[in-house]
Amino acid sequence: MEFDVEYYEALNGKQHVKEFLDELEKINRDLYDVAIGLITGLEDSQYHCLPTSKSLKGGLFELKCSFGNNTCRINWCKGGQRKVFLLNGYIKKGTSKQQREIKKARKLMYELKIRRMI
Questions:
Q1: What's this model's pTM, rounded to 2 decimal places?
Q2: Which residues contact 86 (CB under 8 A, 6 or more apart)?
Q3: Which residues of 65-89 are buried (b: 16+ CB within 10 A; e: fewer)?
């Protein structure tokens, strides 16, 4: 099944994933290329499960991007029948940062629900 992948624009006008990818491209082009490839892969539902994506429960998923020893995560959710919303992204450095970013993604998902986009 094919999906449309969208960069979610938060109520404050920020597109967190676009901003993250712009920075990632500057600091680690190889990891950026992997992330872009996996984001493109989200158009196909086979990429919505392990090993590329992991369910974080409640409709939230993380896209797992790695190149060498470098890892980043992009949190996303499904919306409507065939949409994927990219919520936020970060370089994985430890569990405390990961928990903060997951909390942020859940807040962005809540915005989507309020706006009736999911």
A1: 0.92
A2: 5, 6, 7, 8, 17, 39, 74, 75, 76
A3: beeeeeebbbbbbbbeeeebbbbbb
The CATH number given to 4-114 is 3.30.2310
Q: d(Cα 1, Cα 113) in Å, to the nearest integer?
A: 23
Identify residue 49 by its one-letter amino acid code. Answer: C
Strands 83-91 and 4-7, how do they pair? parallel
CA atoms within 13 A on the CB side of 101: 25
Q: Where are the beta strands (DSSP E) in 8-117?
A: 53-55, 60-67, 70-79, 83-91
Q: Of 52, 71, 70, 18, nearest to 62 (Cα)?
A: 52
pLDDT in tens, 17-45: 999 999 999 999 999 999 999 999 999 88
Torsion of Cα atoms, 93 then 24 then 68 then 108, to 10°: 50
Residue 78's nearest CA partner among 113, 36, 26 is: 113
Question: CB–CB of 39/74 below 8 Å?
Answer: yes
